[in-house]
Design brief:
Blueprint: E1 2-7, H1 11-24, E2 29-33, H2 44-49, E3 52-57, E4 65-70, E5 81-82, E6 94-99, E7 102-108, H3 118-140, E8 144-149, H4 162-165, H5 173-184, E9 188-189, E10 203-204, E11 216-217, E12 220-224, H6 226-229, E13 232-237, E14 253-257, H7 259-266
Parallel strand pairs: 1-2, 7-8
Antiparallel strand pairs: 1-14, 2-4, 3-4, 5-6, 6-7, 8-12, 9-12, 10-11, 13-14
Helix pairs in contact: 3-5
The chain binds one DNA strand through loops.
Amino acid sequence: MHITTWNVNSLKVRLPHVLSWLEANPVDALCLQELKLPDEKFPVAEIAAAGYRSFFLGQKTYNGVAILVKDGLHVDEVDKIHNIPGFDDHQQRLIAVTIEGVRVISAYFPNGQAPGTEKFEYKLRWLAALELWIKDEMVRHPRLALTGDFNIAPDDRDVLDPAKWEGQNLVSPEERAAFFRLIELGLVDSFRKFEQAEKSFSWWDYRMFAFRRNAGARIDMVLLSPLLASICTGCAIDKTPRAWEQPSDHAPVTAILDTAQHLDAKV
DNA sequence: ATGGCTTGCACCGCAAGA
């Protein structure tokens, strides 16, 4: 099973990219963030024509998340979740479905603006609620993938110039501590399970020729429960769509799970 | 250097992203 996360920064603008990327990369689940459109404008038909079912939670202008599931895969209909249970939020930032027994979560973590701001406080509250829910969810779903735009660069390797970033949003000690509390729950950063090129990033600012200079950050991730991590055979960032005309500022990140191996192991 | 791009909204400049 191939699971991808991609912050598309407007699904309306990026739909052609999503469709051509899927044609070349027919993954099983494509988790999207920053749809920036209300549910009534979600391009269900176009995505269905490409062979995918859409599960989505949108809103006007901001946020919005979705999971596109390849036709033929079983999705547990009663098991859908919209936003973090128990966390009262009008921002649409999380959706979860169960695909072939794998709990797949598409999450758009708050940006946080800057430490000390109200938005940063909201980010920390959101992260605390997420941790609480994920802890329970991992008990209910031993096969769990938490994917999305984390808006946290967990390690100094995950930005081009750590000295420039010090103390700022995305790398602050509070955010990194919240990220490592997820890791302490047992989640594995699938990207770091494998040898990767140095200076591997998933987001590059639109400004200052950041992509050309590779002035980026690795903030988009697929975290896996221990059971899924044990059958994960690879994780990669695909930089190609970032170089397309009118791109998203984020690149898709794909984790590969050898689910057949898992089923054999369970017998 | 609080700028630099890109998007959506709603009116032609603003908020928000990371």
